[in-house]
Amino acid sequence: MGSTLLEALNVRVEGSGQKVLVLAHGFGTDQSVWQRILSSFTPYYRVILYDLVCAGSVNPDYFDFRRYTTLDAYVDDLLTILDTLGVDRCAYVGHSVSAMIGILASIRRPELFTKLILVGASPRFLNDRDYHGGFERGEIETVLSAMEANYAAWVSGFAPLSVGADVPDAVREFSRTLFNMRPDISLFVCRTIFNSDLRGVLGLVKAPCCIIQTAKDASVPASVATYLKDHLGGRNTIEELLTDGHLPHLSAPTLFAAKLRRALSR
Amino acid sequence: MPTPVSVARQCLTPEAAHALDEAVGVARRRGHGQTTSLHAVSALLSLPSSTLREACARARNSAYSPRLQFKALDLCLSVSLDRVASTQLSDDPPVSNSLMAAIKRSQANQRRQPENFHLYHQIPNQSSISCVKVELQHLILSILDDPVVSRVFGEAGFRSSEIKLAMVRPLPQLLRYSRSRGPPLFLCNLSEYSDRGPAPARRSFAFPFSGFPGFCGGDENCRRIGEVMNRNKGRNPLLVGVCAYSALQSFTEATEKRKDSVLPVELSGLNVICIENDVSEFVTENSDKGSVCLRFGEVGSMLQQSLGPGLVVNFGDLKAFVSDEASGEAVSHVVDQLTKLLELHAGKVWLIGAAASYESYLKFVNKFPSIEKDWDLQLLPITSLRPPSMAESYPRSSLMDSFVPFGGFFSTPSDLKVPFSSSYRCIPRCHQCNEKCEQEVIDVSKEGFTASIADQSKSSLPSWLQMTELGTNKGLDMKTKDDGVVLGAKVTGVQKKWDNICHRLHQTQQFPEANTFPTLLGFQIVEDKKENTDNHSSHNTDASSSETNCVNVDSSTSMDVQKIATLQSGGPFTVVSKAKNESLLSKQWEKPSKGEDLESGGLNSPRSLSNSSVGDGSGTSPTSATSVTTDLGLGICSSPTSDKPKKSINKNLVELSHEFSGCLSADVDLVNGNISNRLTQSSSCSSPDYGGQFGPREFKTLFRALTQRVGWQDEAICVISQTIACCRTRSEKRHGASLRADIWFNFIGPDRFGKKKIALALAEILHGSREHFICMDLSSQDEMIYSNSIFDCQEMNGYDVKFRGKTLVDYLAGELSKKPWSVVFLENVDKADVPAQNLLSQAIRTGKLSDSHGREISINNAMFVTTSTFSKGKNLRTFGRESSNYSEERILGAKGWPMQIRIGHAFGDNTKSQNISVSDTMRKDISSPTFFNKRKLIGGNESPGQPEISDMAKRAHMTSTRHLDLNLPAEEIEVRDTDDGNSDNNSISNNSKAWLQDFFDQVDKTVVFKPFDFDALADILLKEIKKSFHKIVGSDCSLDIDSKVMDQLLSAACISDRNRVVEDWVERVLSRAFAEVPKRYSLTAHSIVKLSTFEELAPGVCLPPRIILN
């Protein structure tokens, strides 16, 4: 099962080094999103790259609408990959939804993860009584219905918003990967993400976490980073990235790589 | 038995009959005995408005360019047609059985169509088959069913099923993902997929994850709970998460409803008992102990009676146990009871509960430290709110509607290409040419394919020559490149040729809009060029180098002629020499313009002219490329000569431009004249000639121009000029056979200003303008944001904006591909990160850059200048430092603070004697307290030998001593020391040192810079200020200049390109401020006028336009 999974999710292992680094992409992208920073890490790490099952680069038939109803199924995938590759310890870099997956994975298998680097992470996107996640339920419904109505239009609006910074290259790249996702899958994953709420379980994370937060992120308000830092169970730090947008690894790769390097070496 | 054509025609509508006629015509021309489906396809494709062609365009595989795929189709079709045996017939070839069967199939099909049903049944008396007239569309559909036809399409990469689909559906292709698996499986058949379970056919590939346990009606949470309960250890789940409680509820509901699918088989028949309400009542209201005991007793008896696997005790939300209202005694009673229950009925009883957050669980554990073990708890994170119900989670069918715009979006690129490609590829030939071609094919095939390539070519030669003459004006010369492919396949070759002829002669007029697609044209050029290299790779070694498009176009036109020549003689191509020659030529175009720019500074130079016409030539190449080149040559060589008298240029330059014009005119001749003969000649003679020009004279010019800019580094400049002159002469350097003109310098030593200025000057002198200067600071990649000293700001302006979102490689590659003739200035190469190191190593070794998209860019014409302070063996940083008052680091770190003038009073005589001072040591005594504090702070940083390092360095320093991150909890500090970070950093720095050595060894020349004499400059500036001060204020008072002000002034003087910029500033700004001073203050002999920085305002420019007085 493991090897088919590796194949299905396009798992790649790059670089040489003792330590293992997992780079997990977020919603709307695929592993190519790490391409711009990959070469900074391959000399020192064995870097494991994979695609989430919802990514456009994965055969859409693998996406089982009954299985991927919660993030746990994604966690299963991640853990299966790591087990198949015989990884017993690794540092994990997760962006957006993969940050959530990483949190859950490290709860389930605390010994496996030496460190979590969470990029653009949020335990909960919806606002609550004393929590500001950035979105109201009504807004989400609007977004989702916009996606349903016209995916192309939605992508072309969402990509620049998400990238934030004025980097046409990055917007193009993000639009591309976003567009590669089959719209129904994309919608379904969105629902899964918005239905997820990790706030109660953050305390179960014991691995040290580094939260990389950009100055202005359309999806994740700054207060969320603080919330994560306060509630995650391990030793946590926040790294401010002086750039805009939800995808710093795409819009400011050099800056991001430097930060990541620092975060990893601590 | 073949059917006569006339009979077959009866079954067809006029439109379809016309198509059949065409097919018969094809068969007749080929001398075939029967008209088959293949002939029909060939005819259908070449019809003026062909539905089949359109359908192909829509159904084609997007992985290939439409042009390629249609070409492939054309080839496959003609190859299979060639296989058909030819016979001599007097009459029309009759319709073959297979084609007739197709016609009958479509008849039957059409009859079944509901809309036609009545029509055909109302006229039963006409029973013959001819009553149903087959429409063209149906005919095509059934022809596509013919296995021979679908094989041909399959060979060309089409699927006939897709083509059929495209024919049936007028919309641009939708649903392209699932295409490869037959009819689109999408949302519509999703439900059937889930209802009936995976179809056996799809089972094989459906799911790589089948090893995971079965699904439970979409409720992942329940499944996980069941999983936990089925374990031996940690079998009592405690759900944690904001939505844990609702998950708990849905689990109990599901179990009560006996949805057995929810739980593993071993647990089916499980009962759930909820004691939540009893517990919470008891705990909060502290009601009677008896009622709870009763309840527990009930539970116990239930357990004893139960037959199934056991009982789940749901104690509800943990919040009841830990809330403030709960009485501790009651809670512990409940806990004890539950623990007992577990002990008594081990294996038959489960506990389940929920906690909204980990924190409340922690509280609970604090109260009952051993609870985790006693209850054998397993924490189960629940993260998804209300597992979405099936109806909600499955994508709605309304999404289907959205695919019309969606499909429209996708098809835009192909829409763009389709008309273009179809106009070129799909109407193979016009009638006239077609016939000629067929004739020739027949000729060739009758010879039994024995004709050699040369013979074929020869036979076609006259028409070819004709073609080229005509064709140069038509501008579709690239098309002739198709001919290259031809050499392989014999008959198709002839056909192709006729294709091209036909395109040239007839279809260019028919499709003039092709010219309005410049991008597509550009693409074609490139592609053709590739074809060239493929075909003639043995000859053409240098094709991938970055000559401008102009060169490409040009060489492609000349290719025609050359090809003819080579076809005749059979000798090797001279593509290489030609290409080289072209690049030399274009290089020479650059030269005179440089000369122009240098002295005039104006931009009337021929450079722009040449550029624009090059652009014309490459972009919209349809007009004769040869004539473009000629124009270029003339334009350029005339302008230097005409400009010459106007300017008083120094002699060298005149000579230079003379030489260039001479050289150019030769080249112009060459282009105009008899190309094939002159080519080899000139390429052999012009390059040594050219190299000769970069002799001592070039060196002198360069040297002089450089020293004008940067007067103080004459030794370095000497070395640089020599190297450039030298490198230009020997065109073949260490790189063996490949001609490389890139030059690599490494500037080491101090004087960052000087290095940059020289590099900038090189760009201006060699390449004409600042535009050709690409500057990057490799160390600033990490800390780009933080540096805000004047020096950095100056280069960051616009720089980081350009840089955002790109890696170094991509930025550099992008710039270099835009302007290949550039000076690339890479500062702090010793601080380069790993990707940059790899990039540089590759570039210096191979002469190519490959960006992150894998595109290769030649750096043949670029000059690379790297700078570092690091050097072999000795540390140049300390070189000559001791004697200087002003260190380079300090000047570099200077910030553009606003300046202010204050008045102080001196008590004592010491100031009298020396009435202008730069107070570095004295200022603590004189300054006002507020300033004192600040300075002290800075003074702390000024460790003796290392005065005020730049911010960047400071930051690095701080982080290395680990005081900066307030984010970190205190205990982290020790951990960080022991953590793996250190070893990592060390290995990195070691690694890069080795790399640096290696890199430096490969550089063409390492140039050592002397430190800049800041003292001398400071003296000059001070003198100037003093003069102004004495003139305006008088010599009574003394002037005290803060050392930071001095730093700023020096920094400004160094950065600026002009001389005397600070002097001007003193004249304009400072003296005005001085003039204000006596008006505002009463100055005595003891007064000290203090010029200092004003750090309460934000830093701006280093020479502020106004000085603050107060």
What does this structure look like?
The complex is a heterodimer of chains A (about 270) and B (about 1100). Chain A has a single domain (about 1-265), classed as Alpha/Beta hydrolase fold, catalytic domain (Rossmann fold, 3-Layer(aba) Sandwich), CATH 3.40.50. Chain A has eleven helices and seven strands. Chain A has helices at about 1-10, 35-40, 70-85, 95-110, 135-150, 150-165, 170-180, 185-195, 220-230, 250, 255-265, and strands at about 10-15, 20-25, 45-50, 90-95, 115-120, 210-215, 235-245. A seven-stranded mixed sheet of chain A has the order 1-3-2-4-5-6-7, with helices on both faces. In chain A, strand 2, helix 2 and strand 3 form a beta-alpha-beta unit. In chain A, helix 3 crosses helix 4 and helix 5 runs antiparallel to helix 8 (about 185-195). In chain B, the strands form four sheets. A five-stranded parallel sheet of chain B has the order 2-3-4-1-5, with helices on both faces. In chain B, a hairpin with a 5-residue loop joins strand 9 and strand 10 (about 855-860). Chain B is flat and about 115 Å long.
List the helices and strands and how they pair.
The complex is a heterodimer of chains A (266) and B (1110).
Chain A: H1 2-8, E1 12-14, E2 19-24, H2 35-38, E3 45-50, H3 71-84, E4 90-95, H4 97-108, E5 113-119, H5 137-149, H6 151-163, H7 168-180, H8 183-195, E6 209-216, H9 222-231, E7 236-244, H10 248-251, H11 253-265
Parallel strand pairs in A: 2-3, 2-4, 4-5, 5-6, 6-7
Antiparallel strand pairs in A: 1-3
Chain B: H1 5-10, H2 14-30, H3 37-46, H4 51-59, H5 66-83, H6 97-112, H7 114-122, H8 136-145, H9 147-155, H10 160-168, H11 187-195, H12 200-206, H13 220-229, E1 236-240, H14 244-256, E2 271-274, H15 276-285, H16 289-305, E3 311-317, H17 319-322, H18 328-344, E4 349-355, H19 358-367, H20 371-374, E5 377-381, H21 390-393, H22 398-401, H23 403-426, H24 431-446, H25 453-474, H26 482-486, H27 490-510, H28 518-535, H29 549-569, H30 575-600, H31 606-619, H32 625-643, H33 651-672, H34 675-693, H35 696-709, H36 714-729, E6 743-748, H37 752-767, E7 773-777, H38 780-783, H39 790-796, H40 799-803, H41 808-818, E8 823-827, H42 834-846, E9 848-850, E10 856-858, E11 863-868, H43 888-892, E12 899-905, H44 910-913, E13 916-919, H45 923-926, H46 929-941, H47 951-961, H48 972-978, H49 981-1002, E14 1005-1008, H50 1014-1032, E15 1038-1042, H51 1043-1055, H52 1061-1080, E16 1087-1093, E17 1107-1109
Parallel strand pairs in B: 1-4, 1-5, 2-3, 3-4, 6-11, 6-14, 7-8, 8-11, 12-17, 13-15, 15-16
Antiparallel strand pairs in B: 9-10, 12-16
